[in-house]
Design brief:
Layout lengths: L8 E6 L3 E6 L12 E6 L1 H12 L3 E4 L6 H13 L15 E5 L9 E4 L10 H5 L6 E7 L8 H15 L2 E5 L11 H10 L5 E5 H7 L11 H5 L7 H10 L4 E5 L4 E6 L4 E5 L11 H14 L4 H15 L12 H10 L4
Length: 340
């Protein structure tokens, strides 16, 4: 990426933002929660904060309502040093919210409040006003594609990025309840892959993106919404790579990540074992760490390992964006565990 040194921003992140209300009663069933802590959330917004804390110059394109929740998110991003001037207010629409329970090690219920959502109102005009061609990476999330006008605006952003030599990174971010039909997720994902350089996702997200086999298409809405989409993930990755991306980064939880390249190579990047406190947001921390390495010309292995380290740190914390590690913190973590 040496030909991009003159660009103003290292990364531009487009998509959802929210106020995230995390249960303070860790381990309690959702119906017994008595209080919540308020943090900033939303996958691309989280990644923009994580990248900034690592030292990248990041900007975010999200939609905020003309409301106190929008003020809350904006103030946090300004304090973090993320450029917010490309994130418009959307009168008549609400900044979104998420309510999250924490029941380690494997139960983390969450409820989205995204009706009349401000960030789904992002438009092609908003993309034209953003520095897509003045950024080294344009990163977006799958939830952007769930509704118009955000869907066509995001696809347009990816096209502009491709035309201007900006790398396009697509975090699949499969949230089944945000789609009128979860099977539509795959249809729309496949339609944008020709403009994408790198895809990031879990086993289930990758299978959902490639969900087109007639037998699978008969799954019920609830079966797909459980995000337990069966299938041959290797076949799904091969198909995905055939549609344009040069790499698929498969997040495999505690095992770390696998980098699948278009030439058939698979690079295993082991994880960093830690005791899980809260998995919510770990994937976004991974994305921030991976992007730091990718933008700075690190190889696939080391970039993914840094992503794993950032994710490992965040799973030990209460929230996501507010707990993203700094570069010094993550490097100390890595060195304490034997280095890369």
């Amino acid at each position: 990426m040496s030909n991009l040194h003159s660009r103003t921003y290292d990364s531009l992140h487009m998509g959802r933002s929210s106020i995230d209300l995390y249960s303070n009663d860790v381990g309690a069933p959702f119906e017994q929660i008595t209080s919540f802590a308020a943090y900033v959330g939303g996958s691309p917004t989280n990644i923009s904060v994580g990248g900034r804390r690592l030292g990248l110059k990041t900007a975010v394109v999200t939609g905020l309502g003309v409301d106190p929740v929008g003020d809350f998110i904006h103030a946090f991003l300004v304090k973090e040093g993320v450029e917010t001037k490309f994130s418009p207010r959307k009168p008549g629409h609400r900044t979104s919210a998420v309510v999250l329970g924490i029941e380690p090690p494997d139960k983390f219920p969450l409820v989205y409040y995204r009706e009349n959502c401000a960030d789904i109102q992002l438009s092609i005009d908003d993309v034209l006003a953003a520095p897509v061609a003045d950024s080294k990476v344009f990163q977006f999330a799958g939830t952007n594609l769930s509704k118009e006008p955000s869907r066509s605006a995001t696809m347009f952003g990816a096209e502009v990025a491709r035309q201007s030599g900006t790398s396009v990174v697509f975090d699949l971010d499969f949230r089944p309840d945000q789609w009128h039909d979860p099977r539509a997720f795959g249809v729309v994902c496949r339609s944008v892959l020709h403009s994408v350089d790198v895809v990031i996702g879990t086993h289930d997200e990758i299978n959902a993106a490639m969900l087109k086999d007639p037998a699978q298409m008969t799954l019920t809405h609830s079966q797909i919404s459980d995000a337990k989409v069966s299938g041959d993930v290797k076949s799904a990755i091969d198909t995905l790579l055939s549609l344009g991306p040069k790499a698929v980064i498969q997040k495999v939880g505690a095992l770390g990540a696998r980098v699948h390249l278009a030439d058939g190579a698979v690079i295993e990047a082991p994880g960093f074992p830690v005791e899980i406190y809260n998995i919510l947001g770990a994937g976004d921390a991974f994305g921030a760490g991976f992007l730091y390495g990718y933008i700075n010309g690190w190889d696939w292995y080391k970039s993914a390992r840094l992503g794993n380290a950032c994710g490992a740190i965040v799973v030990t914390k209460h929230g996501c964006a507010n707990f993203m590690p700094t570069y010094d913190e993550v490097m100390a973590f890595v060195e304490s565990r034997g280095g890369f």
